[in-house]
Amino acid sequence: MEATTEGVFAAIRKIIQASDLHSNSIRRTTGLTSPQLVLLRAIRNHPDMTIGELSRLISLSQSTVTIILDHLEEEELATRYRSEVDRRKVHARLTSKGQLALELAPAPLQPHFIEEFENLLEHEQSALLASLQKIAAMMDESRPDRPKIKYPFTIPRDQ
Protein backbone atom coordinates (compact mmCIF):
# COMPACT_ATOMS: atom_id res chain seq x y z
CA MET A 1 0.00 0.00 0.00
CA GLU A 2 2.81 2.43 0.88
CA ALA A 3 4.41 1.92 -2.55
CA THR A 4 1.13 2.92 -4.21
CA THR A 5 0.88 6.03 -2.04
CA GLU A 6 4.47 6.93 -2.93
CA GLY A 7 3.64 6.43 -6.61
CA VAL A 8 0.65 8.78 -6.30
CA PHE A 9 2.84 11.35 -4.53
CA ALA A 10 5.51 11.09 -7.25
CA ALA A 11 2.91 11.49 -10.03
CA ILE A 12 1.37 14.54 -8.35
CA ARG A 13 4.85 16.07 -7.89
CA LYS A 14 5.55 15.55 -11.63
CA ILE A 15 2.26 17.28 -12.52
CA ILE A 16 3.06 20.19 -10.19
CA GLN A 17 6.59 20.50 -11.59
CA ALA A 18 5.39 20.46 -15.21
CA SER A 19 2.70 23.01 -14.38
CA ASP A 20 5.23 25.26 -12.62
CA LEU A 21 7.64 25.09 -15.56
CA HIS A 22 4.89 25.98 -18.02
CA SER A 23 3.62 28.78 -15.75
CA ASN A 24 7.12 30.23 -15.51
CA SER A 25 7.46 30.09 -19.29
CA ILE A 26 4.14 31.91 -19.70
CA ARG A 27 5.17 34.55 -17.15
CA ARG A 28 8.51 35.13 -18.89
CA THR A 29 6.95 35.48 -22.36
CA THR A 30 3.72 37.37 -21.50
CA GLY A 31 4.48 39.10 -18.21
CA LEU A 32 1.33 37.51 -16.77
CA THR A 33 1.12 34.85 -14.10
CA SER A 34 -1.02 31.75 -14.50
CA PRO A 35 -3.57 32.97 -11.91
CA GLN A 36 -3.86 36.25 -13.82
CA LEU A 37 -4.48 34.39 -17.08
CA VAL A 38 -6.97 32.05 -15.40
CA LEU A 39 -8.87 35.05 -14.03
CA LEU A 40 -8.81 36.85 -17.38
CA ARG A 41 -10.24 33.72 -19.05
CA ALA A 42 -12.92 33.40 -16.37
CA ILE A 43 -13.94 37.05 -16.82
CA ARG A 44 -14.14 36.56 -20.58
CA ASN A 45 -16.12 33.32 -20.32
CA HIS A 46 -18.44 34.44 -17.49
CA PRO A 47 -18.98 38.18 -17.92
CA ASP A 48 -22.00 38.34 -15.60
CA MET A 49 -20.35 36.72 -12.57
CA THR A 50 -19.53 38.71 -9.47
CA ILE A 51 -15.99 38.78 -8.11
CA GLY A 52 -17.02 36.27 -5.41
CA GLU A 53 -18.49 33.91 -7.99
CA LEU A 54 -15.35 34.18 -10.12
CA SER A 55 -13.18 33.40 -7.10
CA ARG A 56 -15.15 30.21 -6.39
CA LEU A 57 -15.08 29.25 -10.08
CA ILE A 58 -11.28 29.43 -10.28
CA SER A 59 -10.67 28.12 -6.74
CA LEU A 60 -8.94 31.20 -5.36
CA SER A 61 -9.93 33.20 -2.32
CA GLN A 62 -11.85 36.39 -2.92
CA SER A 63 -9.02 38.42 -1.37
CA THR A 64 -6.52 36.82 -3.79
CA VAL A 65 -8.80 37.57 -6.75
CA THR A 66 -9.09 41.17 -5.54
CA ILE A 67 -5.29 41.50 -5.43
CA ILE A 68 -5.00 39.99 -8.91
CA LEU A 69 -7.67 42.38 -10.18
CA ASP A 70 -5.77 45.32 -8.68
CA HIS A 71 -2.78 44.32 -10.82
CA LEU A 72 -4.91 43.68 -13.93
CA GLU A 73 -6.47 47.14 -13.54
CA GLU A 74 -3.02 48.72 -13.15
CA GLU A 75 -2.01 47.03 -16.41
CA GLU A 76 -5.32 48.15 -18.00
CA LEU A 77 -6.32 44.55 -18.79
CA ALA A 78 -9.58 44.56 -16.81
CA THR A 79 -11.88 46.92 -14.96
CA ARG A 80 -14.31 46.49 -12.09
CA TYR A 81 -17.82 47.89 -12.04
CA ARG A 82 -20.83 47.81 -9.73
CA SER A 83 -24.06 46.09 -10.69
CA GLU A 84 -26.83 48.40 -11.86
CA VAL A 85 -29.38 46.23 -10.02
CA ASP A 86 -27.53 45.69 -6.74
CA ARG A 87 -24.76 48.20 -6.05
CA ARG A 88 -23.20 45.83 -3.48
CA LYS A 89 -22.24 43.42 -6.27
CA VAL A 90 -18.97 44.00 -8.09
CA HIS A 91 -18.22 42.53 -11.51
CA ALA A 92 -15.23 42.69 -13.84
CA ARG A 93 -14.87 43.08 -17.56
CA LEU A 94 -11.95 42.83 -19.92
CA THR A 95 -10.60 45.91 -21.60
CA SER A 96 -9.64 45.78 -25.27
CA LYS A 97 -6.04 45.35 -24.10
CA GLY A 98 -7.14 42.42 -21.90
CA GLN A 99 -9.00 40.80 -24.79
CA LEU A 100 -5.91 41.13 -26.98
CA ALA A 101 -3.70 39.70 -24.22
CA LEU A 102 -5.94 36.61 -24.06
CA GLU A 103 -5.91 36.20 -27.84
CA LEU A 104 -2.12 36.27 -27.85
CA ALA A 105 -1.56 34.29 -24.65
CA PRO A 106 -0.47 30.66 -24.85
CA ALA A 107 -2.77 27.90 -23.64
CA PRO A 108 -2.76 27.28 -19.87
CA LEU A 109 -1.63 23.69 -20.53
CA GLN A 110 1.36 22.62 -22.57
CA PRO A 111 0.52 22.24 -26.28
CA HIS A 112 1.84 18.66 -26.37
CA PHE A 113 -0.43 17.74 -23.45
CA ILE A 114 -3.47 19.25 -25.17
CA GLU A 115 -2.67 17.39 -28.38
CA GLU A 116 -2.18 14.04 -26.64
CA PHE A 117 -5.29 14.53 -24.49
CA GLU A 118 -7.43 15.41 -27.51
CA ASN A 119 -6.16 12.29 -29.30
CA LEU A 120 -7.54 10.09 -26.53
CA LEU A 121 -10.90 8.43 -26.98
CA GLU A 122 -13.80 10.30 -25.40
CA HIS A 123 -14.25 7.72 -22.65
CA GLU A 124 -10.51 7.94 -21.84
CA GLN A 125 -10.74 11.73 -21.58
CA SER A 126 -13.77 11.40 -19.30
CA ALA A 127 -12.02 8.83 -17.11
CA LEU A 128 -8.92 11.04 -16.73
CA LEU A 129 -11.04 14.07 -15.92
CA ALA A 130 -13.04 12.11 -13.34
CA SER A 131 -9.82 10.82 -11.76
CA LEU A 132 -8.31 14.31 -11.56
CA GLN A 133 -11.52 15.71 -10.06
CA LYS A 134 -11.54 12.91 -7.49
CA ILE A 135 -7.90 13.58 -6.58
CA ALA A 136 -8.59 17.31 -6.25
CA ALA A 137 -11.57 16.60 -3.98
CA MET A 138 -9.55 14.16 -1.86
CA MET A 139 -6.82 16.77 -1.39
CA ASP A 140 -9.18 19.67 -0.66
CA GLU A 141 -8.42 20.78 2.90
CA SER A 142 -11.10 23.47 2.83
CA ARG A 143 -13.92 20.94 2.95
CA PRO A 144 -15.92 21.34 6.17
CA ASP A 145 -15.78 17.58 6.88
CA ARG A 146 -11.97 17.72 7.07
CA PRO A 147 -10.28 18.08 10.44
CA LYS A 148 -7.44 20.56 10.55
CA ILE A 149 -4.11 18.77 10.14
CA LYS A 150 -1.99 18.93 13.27
CA TYR A 151 1.51 17.66 12.89
CA PRO A 152 3.00 16.01 15.99
CA PHE A 153 6.21 18.03 15.89
CA THR A 154 7.78 21.11 14.41
CA ILE A 155 11.09 21.18 12.64
CA PRO A 156 13.61 23.26 14.60
CA ARG A 157 14.78 26.33 12.73
CA ASP A 158 18.01 28.22 13.26
CA GLN A 159 17.24 31.73 14.39
Q: Tell the overall outline.
A: globular
| Relative helix content | 55-70%
CATH architectural arrangement: Orthogonal Bundle
Query: What is the residue-mean pLDDT, rounded to a whole number?
Result: 89
Strand order of the largest sheet: 1-2
CATH class (first level) name: Mainly Alpha
Strand content: 5-15%
**Gyration radius, in Å:** 19 Å
Sequence of secondary-structure elements: HHHHEEHHH
Kindly list the characteristics that best describe this protein.
159 residues; mainly alpha; Arc Repressor Mutant, subunit A; two-stranded antiparallel ribbon; 7 helices; 2 strands; 60% helix; 6% strand; globular
Describe what is shown at a glance.
The chain has 159 residues and is mainly α.
Question: What can you tell me about this protein's structure?
Answer:
- There is one protein chain.
- This protein has 159 residues and is mainly alpha-helical.
- The chain starts with a helix and ends in a 20-residue tail after the last helix.
- Helix 3 (51-57) packs across helix 4.
- The model has no long low-confidence stretch (mean pLDDT 89).
- It has one domain (2-138): Arc Repressor Mutant, subunit A (Orthogonal Bundle), CATH 1.10.10.
- The chain is globular, with a radius of gyration of 19 Å.
- The chain has 7 helices and 2 strands; from the N terminus they run ααααββααα.
- A two-stranded antiparallel ribbon has the order 1-2.
- It has helices spanning 2-30, 34-45, 51-57, 62-74, 96-104, 111-118, 122-139, and strands spanning 78-82, 90-94.
